[in-house]
Amino acid sequence: MDNDFCFKCGTKLFFLKNSNNILSSECEKCGQGYGKEKGKTLIESRGNSSLSIPLYFIIFENKKLSNERINQIASSFIDYDKRYLKVFLEDINNELTNPKRKLTEFHDSVGSEEIARDYLSRLSERIQNLLKLKL
Ligand SMILES: [Zn+2]
């Protein structure tokens, strides 16, 4: 339960009881906000949440992203905690091979599912390449 850490900077997170079964937290170091289900770790209750951070980048994109933009976004993930990146890449892969949700429902994105899936696929490939380069 207390193994939750910030996906961005790895700082330990402390959760406060919110409404219903949702617990919320804000990272003391970088300010990233998180929510999770009661009784579950952040990664276990990730349901939709590990994809939330990447989807924020494309809420206002109404056409396929350029390679430059993909590179830029991928670079911003490289310093994230590796435990998160592993889960995040797995989740993208699962969602792309076995779609379970409507990606454009996230914050009423203006783009199409095709744009969102093309983005996630290229983003995950790019991040994996960058990680290989870094290791
Ligand atoms: Zn943080």
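^ zinc ion complex. DSSP finds four helices and three strands in the chain. Residues 6, 8-9, 11, 27, 29-30, 32 surround zinc ion (CB under 6 Å).
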